[in-house]
Fold each of these.
Amino acid sequence: MDKALIELLARRAGLAKALAEFPDDVEAAAKQAADVASRIKRPADPAAEPWPPMKAGTGL
Amino acid sequence: MPVGEAASAIAAKKLSPVDLTKALLDRIGRLDPKLNAFIRVDGDAALQAAKAAEAEAMSGRLRGPLHGVPVGIKDIIDVAGLPTTCHSKVRADHMATSDAVCVEKLRGAGAIVLGKLSTHEFAIGGPSFDLPWPPARNPWNPDHHPGGSSSGSGSGVAAGLFPMALGTDTGGSVRNPASCCGIVGLKPTYGLVSRRGVFPLSFTLDHIGPMTRTVADNALMLEAIAGHDPLDPGSAAAVQGHYTKGVERGIRGLRVGFVRHFHETDTPAHPDVAAALETVASTLQKEGAEVCDVSLPPLGEFGAVNRVILQSEAWSIHAPWLGERPGDYGMLARRRLMPGAFMGSGDYVLASRRRLEMIAAVEAVLREVDVLLCASSMDPACRIDDPVEVERTYPRQARTPFNTTGHPALAMMSGLSSGGMPVSVQFVGRYFDEATIFAVARAWERAAGTDKKHPPIG
């Protein structure tokens, strides 16, 4: 993730102030996000469901 | 004095709750300046509650199995009339108007709230020196960190400032301080203990758990706080279990699956940690259990799934504050809470789908064995003033898998390292089968005498 993209995404997420005051922290967070997301294996089954499941009637 | 012994002595009118509370307040006054386990000691209210408990005990009226026994509360959990600061400037002015359900249940069982305990900021950013309160320290060596995020809970229980504490666990935050401080910490099955009144870090990963010096005390405390809460959307409808009855039942014939690859190949452990795990396995065999090797998905992927879900959910909570007042957070919390801003909906849903596959993988193994045995921390606690070593060792752990899957998991002491710091083991059970975990943990505790090993302090 390059610097321009990080800045664009940070502003879109409402982090303009953090970007101005703590640019290193914003950059570290962006790199961490990219790294951790890339380590997840895609399920082989395209119909694999997420957890927790939607369960009608179990709400409050 | 363990919780069970104190409660029995109070019930028998041989121990005064007022004397016990005064003795602990005196110990806190002497030791806490070195340990920083507390953010706020609520001494006057504790003494008032102790006087009421004493009057009730003397007239034969006991509120419950914890009558007159003091407890410390991690400061992301609401206690009526006290701020829930989350160890953060962001929440310094907060005031709780009612008790969290878990605190209400502890009071209902007779416990006395001593005060609010240090945590990593918002249960994620620490150990940090840029917050309004200093970080808790490890009573085995105050130059070392006590683990986190329930750092004050672990430090204080180990140091004997209080016999029991509440912690919370989203990526291992009850079990990490239990491991670093040599006590017993349980992350119950997801949904067994109500989260209502606890400041959230990650809705689908947050658990509240008991932290004690002994396995039996842990079971006693869980019995007090477990139960369905219709106002917590994650609360399980399962019937509250009886955890204390079977603690001493022994483990003859139980099947224990040893997850060796976690600490041998996925994240190679410190030799003292690995050696202690072998000792635990052979001891359980001598106690009559069948121990065999089992395999789960790799630790690295469990960690990634946990992080994507945790940071996505945490971002949805913290986005407004991080946008408006980022300088009110410490550096570590800022860095650990902002990644969610850079994750897409696809990342979150992918992690949630992989999560179900991981649940299925753990469930498949738990159909073949009764309990899993594995590492908790891969290293003993390092110096708290060494940020590079803290950053290197903190992620070297095997706790996040069971936040991801929701299975109950208990961490406790497996021995001492060559440097004199606690090392740890983790036992994991089937959903809502905390009772079997307690039986296995107690068998190890009884054989190794871990409940008799305390830090050389005070």
Amino acid sequence: MISHNVLDQLKAIVGEKNVFADTISVSSYSYDATMLSGTAMATVFPVTTEQTVHLVKYLDSVNIPLVPRGAGTNLSGGTIPMENSVVVNFSRMTKILEIDTENFVAVVEPGLVNFDFQVELEKYGFYYPPDPASYKATTLGGNLGECSGGPRCFKYGVTRDYVLGLEVVLPDGQIIQTGGRNFRSEPGFDLTRILVGSEGTLGFITKIFLRILPKPAAKKTMLAIYNEVEDASQTVADIVAAGIVPTTLEMMDNILINTAEDATGAGLPRDAGALLIIEIDGHEVDMDAQVEIIAEICKKARVREFKIARTVAEVDQLWLARRVVIGSVARRRPSYSLQDVTVPRSMFPSAVKEIVKVRKDYNLDIGILAHAGDGNFHPLVLFDQRNKDEVERVHAVEKHICTMALALGGTVSGEHGIGLLKKHFIEMEFSATAMESFKKIKSAFDPNHRFNPGKIM
Amino acid sequence: MGVLNDVYEMLNTCNKCGFCLTACKTYKTDLREPMSPRGRIQLIKKLADGVIEPDKDYEDAINSCLLCGECAVACPSGVRGNDLVLAARRDLKLRKGGIKPFTKSFALKTLASPSRLEHGFNLFRGVGKGILNRIDGLDYFRGVDVKGMPVAKKPFMDQVPEHITVNNPKKKVAFFVGCFLNHSLDGTAHSVVKVLTKNDCDVIIPKDQVCCGLPQYAYGDFETAKENARKTIESFLKKDIDSVVTACASCGSMLKEEYLKLFADEPNYLPRVKEFCAKVFEFSQFVEEEIELDKSKLKSHTPVKVTYHDPCHMVRHLKITSQPRQVLRSIPRLEFTEMNEANRCCGASGLVQAFYHELSTDITRQKTKNIVDSGAEVVATSCPACMLRIQGGINFAGQKQKVVHVADLLAKAYKSEN
């Protein structure tokens, strides 16, 4: 329970309508898109940098930990609050402060939703490449905290590659500015890059300088359908080996084709072993030649059917089907465990083979979803949380998949962050000495461990 | 609680992905989780699990839902948030033995009874408006344009005979008038009759018709809703008719779809319900599908730029979107233009506008902006509740667009030579 005194102080800082400590509100911020939960004492919504500074200083003085939050759509448990903490919710800081098309820069507040940003940029003929599947709901601050990726990242890179600078409120309440609006200026230590993906453990971001791009002149979206998932994964390796860089190279297997089809009715082939969604962009004149090369590669890998989306509506349908995958699996089983391992591209077919084997060995429903071009996998292990035996097998599979990725020279997390969910796995990836460096960095920023404590390490 | 047990699997199917957040007008306006579909679903689940109590804050989360159905469209796993909220409201009603607070219960009881409703509107027209006129500045009570709200001098059903016949009728159509058209927008009710008679339909207006029961149903009072539904079904089926037409999207979805759910537990009566539901048409749907509109009879009047607002009950419940637009496009010299977010809720949603007026007013403001941006002079729609809400929003914003029913525009296109 939060004391009246603390509550009054919080209200004095952010206003009556931005503080919530009733059971219903507290309960509503106990979860994110994982199955974890934890209960804070209150949720506060700062709407300015100044308020954030006051909150941080005040909560420091009464020794209360702070847990940052945006839309709460993360897949790592990064926003799960601990007891006796206060959730600092940035989703009411939604302003676009500037769109500078001459210098390809936009300045935004952290609570702005990725999709709302894209809609505004579109009016200027621009876009922001990182596009996590949940982009319609996720905030840019949250994307930054987890260093989110998305389907377009094969060609364009992840959130880290688009953050030019930050305004940061440090755990002692001081404000710093890192980077800036210049494309190449981070003399000294690259604090911006340390903060991106730090899940609010080092500082709270109150302003973000983002790099934006003009929309490409042309793009083509293709659908390749396979009988065997192994043939699809071979295609991925061959496209990369041919030196072609599609914006998108997405793979989904039979289980996920079916749940996505249930959700959208997009006309996906329910009997296919796997499919690839391939998108290229660039200049109109280059499109046809590239499509031809890709079609040839697919054919060589025994593609069953190769289609090019002819209309905007067809393209949208394919994308909708891809974006709903993770959400749609509850149609099959109520719970899922989602991995985010990444392997070197050349190892992609080996990893697919291993996951297919794991599926049999552990007798579990595992859907394979992958940003295949990046070697980034999202195996979705489907189960029912109420079935104890199943839950144990799921945990064994999680460990198996992470071990496999590391053995192939990969990493345990490509784009979802570590949060609480992958804390044990990150220790498998890095040496004890490297983890020690993590801790020193954390302590340098936040000596009292009050910013999102217990996350990442 | 039984009601929540019945929907527990659907509650459990929500895997908290958050795709519904952006689809929800109350969340996008308020930005608090309990105002989102995911938030509401998780709260209902926690109540079912016995982890939380149904306190005032819980009721606010459940009762502020617009039931617009947008979350159900957005959910990748097919969870129907609006159905779950409806179950939660039913559960609240059963837990407490009645609907709280008193004002809400009073409003619903008044709607359910024709005599009380008429008395209420008369009181409002006479004494109520008199008082309002004397209170300076009180034009808008809780975001509702009370001063501007029209009240029929006499209920529509007292203005017309039960049978309106034409020469050589091709169809016999019963008109389900609905509370709003009967007591407030009687002009629109006359428009409906005019379009039907101009198209060679005998119009039968059963004088014993009552409220469809949706307002009570939406707040979990299934008993009263059933009582009204049974009266409605019987009063229409005893007439010799081909079809039942309504010009209210909300009544339409109740009559055509919700009655089937409401009586799912009465297998003996269900065939009669089905017989009735099969006869029901929404106005524009009837015009497009059941009669051949003779466009040569439609005369051009002054050119006008019109946009269309899709009521929630039309677009997501009845799934009728092209028909009203077709009707509008068939009117000479009418320039049709789409507004941004035409299919998103206007913020009215029954009693939500009265009990969560700040939230509702913000949502209406977004609708008003989209209307102004469209450049239209007239907004057509298919639901009297939306008409009143949107007109209030436009007046409140100091704008001058007029909100009318699709039937009003079509009726106007028939020269009044009869």
Amino acid sequence: MARMRMNQAIAAAIGDEMRENPDVVTFGEDVAVAGGPFKTSDGLLEEFGPLRVRDTPIAEMGFMGAAVGAAATGLRPVAEIMFVEFLGVALDQLVTEAAKFNYLSGGTVRVPMVMRASVGAGLGFGCQHSQVMESWMVGSPGLKIVVLSGPGNAYGLTRAAIRDDNPVAVLEPRILYAVRGDVTTGVEGIIPLGQAATLASGDDITLVSCGSTVRTCLAASADAGGWTADVIDLQTLQPWDVEAVLSSVERTGRLAVVEECPYSGGWGADIVAKVVSDSFGDLKAPPIRITAPDVHVPFGKELEQRYLPSSEYVGAQVSELLATGESPPHWWERDGALV
Amino acid sequence: MSSEVLARREAVRTDRTARFERMVEIRALEDAVRGLFAEGLVHGTTHTCQGQEAVSVGVAAALRPTDSVCCTYRGHGMGMALGLTPQQVCGEIMGRVVGSIGGVGGSMHLCETSIGLLPTMAIVGAGVPVAAGAALTAQVRGTDDVAVAVFGDGAANIGAFHEGINLAAIWKLPAIFICENNQYGEYSPIAATTPIANIADRAVSYGIPGEVVDGQDVDAVNAAVATAAARARAGDGPSLLEMKTYRYAGHSRSDTAPYRPAGEFDRWYERDPINTFGARLTSEGLLAPGDTDAIAARIAGEVDAAVDEVKGAAAPGVASMFENVLV
């Protein structure tokens, strides 16, 4: 057990995998000499040298393609996309090449690469550097998607992603890089992909979260008066832990999915659909989604905070659901909200 | 199948007559594919490479089975040059279990790792950075393998071309970038999309060698690739080779190439890569007069038999849809 920031936990995870396996390499923009724009590869160049730790040009399509080719021929590359928006110019390589190579080789070619990217709002970077963009990858068979929610799982999920034989996208909420926490290091700290973590237990509702909304849900649940919640951190968004969610809802009878992304096309829609389809008889109230609105991430501090689902907002939505038995309107749908 | 593929791989590497035979075989299969479409036996589309056989075979001749090749959706010729059998290629085109990847890919998707053929990619330019990555593996592991990207002239105008070659150049990766300039990107002539006459000139901006090669001459292609491969294996970095060639057919099966100027095909056909190489081997005494016709007739029969075999093969079952999605 060690106490570290999330960015340090990520660097530690990559370093530990590189130490154990000479096929692990890492590259991206300013990951080597500078140790990463978010210091997620600090010290790796010094320990492992320039053959395995590389700075790339600002050319995501090029180095993401290089990750695909390297992985297809035996390496385990960890390629960093500084802001997930930059993946837009490289998306072909991840969802159309990497994710399909195993299929398009009759199972003979594996692509054990990791695409790491910082995601999310809260730091005032404006609307082109504040999105999460899981929706670019969810619904892309052949790809696993992991979302970190703090130092506690950053280490274990990153190591598992590097060890996985599939291409794995690891999304790192950048607002959490500086958060400190206890980290179980070493092989015992590795967290299997596809497993959710239940971080709080309660009786009245299941709160499903991932990434930055995990701590939002934990705070909402801790501050709640009059209700208690199961708080589930999905950790892996694709494939997600159906059993963990359904077994919780079976007990609580209520579901709220809390997402940082805009309402339309959000991953939570899949969770709600599955619960409604498979556990309809368990439900005591309509499942709800608590998300950002279908707008660009605002730049100004107050507006950006309004955009993100806060713990107070999650608490209020849940309380209203419990009180009325009906799906509460989103904040932006309420009278007077937009003045 | 694997030993036959490896034997075919080796034959093209070592035997010029085998190279001639392979070019004839590629032409025969591509011509047969056209007939299969007419019979309604092929679902979807196909992109054939008649006229470009010398590029595929010349490239394969200069490489080792441990080298990696990233190829495009116009990949039947490259795949067969590297050793895929007509059954494997035709099986994929017709969606049968005897296909290179079990019939789940279709005409654009071939793969055979035993001969270095990575999954062929149906996105223009995608293979350029992927080849850089395969070359990175060789560099990190300290082998002397090389990685090759074969792509069309159309790919020279997509960002992946620039990013992939630039990355290979700055990292001095053992890669060879081979532009198969068949004069058309889909339906558009190269002059309409590309402001310079020679794509090889772009090598200057990456500080790497760039060479225009007669893509209708299998010996010239082989020599140029061998030189680039030696350079790459020695740790001196990548090269850009432009093979000037010509696509006899349209872009894909629905394209009859009505945009082609009158006489253009005839001018290129005067330097047909199979006819000229056959004549050269005959003049050198490696083939006797009349041998080329006999070889063509024999191979036409073999390809017909292969196609018949594929026609009798099963299509993949429903379970195949769920296989190899995740490892």
Amino acid sequence: MIGVLKTLVWRDVRQSYASGGTWLPVIFYLSAATLFPFAVGPDRDLLLQTGGGILWIAALLATLLPLDRLVQPDLDNGLYDQLIVRGITDELIAFARLISHWLAFGPPLLFAALLASGLMGLEGSSLVTLLASLAIATPALAGLAVMIAALTSGLKGAGALGGLLLVPLAIPLLIFGAGSLADRTNSALLFLSAVSLLLVAITPFAAGAALRAVRE
Amino acid sequence: MRNEAGDSLRALALSCVRGEKMLFRDLNFVLTPGQAGLVTGPNGVGKSSLLRLIAGLLQPFSGSLDTPLSITLCDDRMALDENLPLSGALRFWARLDGKTDADCLNAMAAVGMGHLAEVPIRYFSTGQRQRARLARTFLSSANLWLLDEPANGLDTASVALLGKTLQAHLDNGGMILAASHIALPIALDLTLELAALEQMETPL
């Protein structure tokens, strides 16, 4: 099973980086961070206060960008059918997709956040907190993306529906993630970790069930 | 009920419902090692659904099905990465099926595509895409080959080549169940003629 997982993850990761789609969320993220100071003005205190929250919202929106590439192409291509015929379960397929999507989405996003926080003037402990909260949340964001992509696969207008689905599901992440920036006790980070773990844990089962339902 | 234990394919009173429409019912047949079967019938009668049902991608509505443990399905979808060369795309399945690069070369040779090994799949013509699908199918060491229109888009030389590989599989004790409108150059032990059902009998 580990061998199968490795093969599936390696294929997806190589494909994401080779297609260049990995850098789309990064560019989007940096654009959002660049535009924000133009909109609110170069007031250093205001940027320090709001910058972290804006970078969090940008991270959520960046999650939406790759939704249509996560499941639909492989479903249309018959890849999942071939895996099922080989006795590989839907849950394992979804789990592999979660890992591979996080590998292609998480590290580039953290790198972009590091650059963007410079534009907001974040430094020192608030920079560390922002990066830590994003690092904790990216697996959950990747999980949400895989779940939503699987749930909306085969539907018309899946992109718009995906946006609608993500907003309520991502609110706990946003509350604890952005909340951790103003929190000196780290309890928000602990809650964020709990929410993130929960979302990661249900992803293989929810996305796997969705893949099974599409096939029928 | 689906049971994946036996060494042969056995259907007992098998029925299939798709989208509130009963496609076929009370289908009985047996395919033993070394035998080949052909599914015939007009478009939309349920040939592909029967193959997908045997492959485990659909659940039977009623009846029971005993299948061999290892099955491979060749339908109209590639399941090969369009941007990779043929050899690279096949290597992904070779890894999953526990095969070596030499097996990939053999599979490509079996469909006469050895010289196209380094060409990306997206440049292939209709016939070449079909041969690439067949190569992926031959690569697996499954006992039961389910082939949905395997000769579609193939020229006469390629059909003859396909027949050779199919015969070799049968000689090795393999089984083949194909749905095809083009005559396959192998001896058939079983022909399943699916006919459209009166839709008055819809159970849902």
